[in-house]
Amino acid sequence: MTRTDKAMADRNVNLFFEFEKYVLDHPKFAAKIPKDAVIVFQVMEDEAFNQWSRRLARKHGKDAKGPVVYVRISRMRPVRSRIAALKIERAA
Fold first, then answer.
1. Does residue 1 register a pLDDT over 70?
2. 82 confidence band (pLDDT: 50, 70, 90)
């Protein structure tokens, strides 16, 4: 795996986690996804990633039971911490 492929794979994993959170919060959207679908993320203004993602889908989509589905991401919110409170203590 090349360095670029690793960066693309890392981005894909991060998008998957965000997508998973989104569908949990939006069950009506999740209901539109066909069973056994191959999810292909497409990110606005990132053609290098989009080409990589489509190439991966072609490779894995051939053996898939379900259809290939493109999820087009047009905007993302900034990443924020979920920590509600914390405290710093000096070690003895």
1. no
2. confident
Spatial CA neighbour of 75 closest among 44, 31, 39: 44
Q: Are 1 and 59 in contact (CB under 8 A)?
A: no
Helix (H) or strand (E) holding 71: strand 68-73
Residues 50/79, Cβ–Cβ less than 8 Å: no
Q: Which domain holds residue 44?
A: 3-73
In the chain, the number of structural domains is 1
* Helix, strand, coil % over all residues of the chain, rounded to 5: 45, 15, 40
pTM metric for this prediction? 0.78
> Do the domain assignments include residue 44?
yes
- pLDDT digits over 56-76, tens only? 988 877 777 889 899 999 998
Number of H helices and number of E strands within the chain? 3, 2
CA 66 to chain centre: 18
